[in-house]
């Protein structure tokens, strides 16, 4: 009974969740095994009428179906990640241009308007393209970056900081070991 208990534990199932007990091959001819299983599952009837060849074919079909779903799940995850990256970029950009501690006081009106227009249009595109493909989301984020990054770089250069990274951070104190 240990293999049965282990299989159920691995599957995260309790006895009451088992709907059918199927015996395939030699196990359906051993009365002691049948009785132990029937007792373990509180008298539930055992199905002993499955052809072993059918069981193998059914198992192979289940594995194939699981592989197909795994591929589809991967595509959905990649698409969702691409959409989330675009949304995150847009909202980070909106926060930066409205936060006095970041870029709000360093942007001139035209620069701020261009970024606001770009992010507004990108959000509208997201609303209109809820089910876009991963590639579409990636293309859109590139489009938004092409519009916003030169402005951000120019602002950092004007303010004496480095584009990207943490401006003014000195790494002089670190000694190599």
TrEMBL record:
GO MF annotations, alphabetized: ATP binding; ATP-dependent protein folding chaperone
Region named Disordered: 157-177
InterPro entries, per database record: ATPase_NBD, HSP70_C_sf, Hsp_70_fam
KW Transit peptide (keyword) present: no
One GO CC term, this protein: endoplasmic reticulum lumen
Main localization category: endoplasmic reticulum
Pfam families the record matches: HSP70
Gene3D superfamilies per the UniProt record, alphabetical: 1.20.1270.10, 3.30.420.40
Domain of life where this protein originates: Eukaryota
Subcellular localization, as worded in the UniProt entry: Endoplasmic reticulum lumen
GO biological process: endoplasmic reticulum unfolded protein response
Alphabetic keyword roster: ATP-binding, Endoplasmic reticulum, Glycoprotein, Nucleotide-binding
Family: Belongs to the heat shock protein 70 family.
PANTHER family xref list: CHAPERONE PROTEIN DNAK, HSC70CB, ISOFORM G-RELATED
Annotated function: Probably plays a role in facilitating the assembly of multimeric protein complexes inside the ER.
Protein name (database record): Luminal-binding 4
Protein's organism: Olea europaea subsp. europaea
């Amino acid at each position: 009974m240990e293999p049965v208990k282990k299989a159920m534990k691995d599957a995260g199932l309790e006895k009451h969740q088992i709907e059918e007990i199927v015996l395939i091959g030699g196990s359906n001819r051993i009365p002691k095994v049948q009785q132990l299983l029937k007792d373990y599952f509180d008298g539930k009837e055992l199905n002993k009428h499955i052809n072993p060849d059918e069981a193998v074919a059914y198992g192979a079909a289940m594995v194939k179906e699981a592989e197909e779903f795994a591929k589809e799940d991967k595509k959905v995850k990649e698409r969702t990640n691409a959409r989330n990256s675009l949304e995150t970029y847009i909202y980070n950009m909106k926060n930066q241009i409205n936060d006095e501690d970041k870029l709000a006081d360093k942007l001139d009106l035209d620069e701020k308007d261009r970024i606001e227009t770009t992010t507004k249009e990108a959000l509208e595109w997201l609303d209109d393209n809820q089910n876009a493909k991963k590639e579409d989301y990636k293309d859109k984020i590139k489009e938004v970056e092409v519009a916003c990054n030169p402005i951000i770089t120019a602002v950092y250069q004007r303010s004496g900081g480095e584009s990207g990274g943490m401006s003014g951070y000195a790494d002089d104190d670190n000694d190599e070991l």
